[in-house]
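Database export, one record per block. Field names are fixed; values are copied verbatim from the stored entry.
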Amino acid sequence: MKVFLCLVALLCAPSIFASDDFDLEAHMKNMGLAYKHTVEATQLPEFNTAIDEFITLLKRSKSATFHKEAEQSLQGLDKVIIKAELAKRLANEQGLDAAKEPLKAIDGLRKQYHKLHEPPGFWELLFGK
């Protein structure tokens, strides 16, 4: 009986230790909040704090495990990072109004790349793509 319990413990141990503690869904919500703070910022220091947090969260997201379309998801994150860094540079050089265009592009990229991870619809489940 002791041997059996030891075997069960050893078989379960790798799954316990290998569990991914990175909660991508919660992380994405934090990114959305940081993005919202960035867009709503009215002062440059407030904007810089929010955009820095957003960029940090984006870079951290690249370490997540994407189960579908991983390569495209990583490319999307890279594109968003580039746009966020451009928005920061423009805001610091020309003012907050100059950052609006790259921030709008980020929202477009978000919509585009979120489609990769949407669950299949009813008809898609029945008949496939």
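Remark 1: The CA atoms of residues 87 and 101 lie 8 Å apart.
Remark 2: Helices lie at 2-17, 24-40, 44-61, 70-94, 100-114, 122-127.
End of record.
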